[in-house]
Amino acid sequence: MVDKHVVRGSYDDLAETYAAERAAGEREAERAALATVLESLPAGGRVLDVGCGQGTPVLSAVVDGDWGDGGDEDGDRDRDGDGDRNGDENGDRNAARECQYDTIGVDISRTQLEFAADTVPAASLAQGDMTRLPISADCVDAGIVLHSIVHLPLAEHQTCLDELARVLRPGGRVLVSEGISEWQGSNPDWLDSGSEMQWHMAGADATREQLRNAGFTIVDEWGATERFADQDERWQYLVAELDT
Q1: What does the H/E/C string look like for 132-173?
Q2: What's the whole-number mean pLDDT along residues 78-89?
């Protein structure tokens, strides 16, 4: 079972190591996932990153406008079907998107938040538990839960999604990444840091049910394989809209 005190202490202890691994990893799938949510938001919308870590990849991508154009299910989702991701236009699009949204990051680790303050000074940051978000109700247009809900005990996954429903405005969208199937485990020396990390993945089927229980309608989902710390990780991305 996941012990959140262990997770918090480990993310405090290995903050620098984790930041380096995140910076070195491939981010195409994550930017494509962000695009599915952000492309429908009006300018000035508020984006909440739940489990924001050191500010990458979500907060930095949102603030810089560098959240991609979509692609296929491996992080290269070609939405217009012409086989052209229009890469030459990305710079202009990023400039137009820059600082388009109000951003908030929440994380349980104070050290991770200190890194985030340096990485994304434009973002508002708060320390808190994702099952008790320090955010007012009905004040957020999009919630991003990228590879973070898996650090909760399984019994608290539903509570996290209920909290997202509380803080989202009606019609707001959430992006959640989950494991394909249920799995729990730990690594006593994660990232060769000497710190233990723990996970409990609910799996895609359970997460679909939890989203519906929280009042969401799933509008998109896909699988993606990503490379992190020299390992391939398989994730299911789910985009859901809060019922009005």
Answers
A1: ECCCCCCCEEEEEECCCHHHCCHHHHHHHHHHHHHHEEEEEE
A2: 38
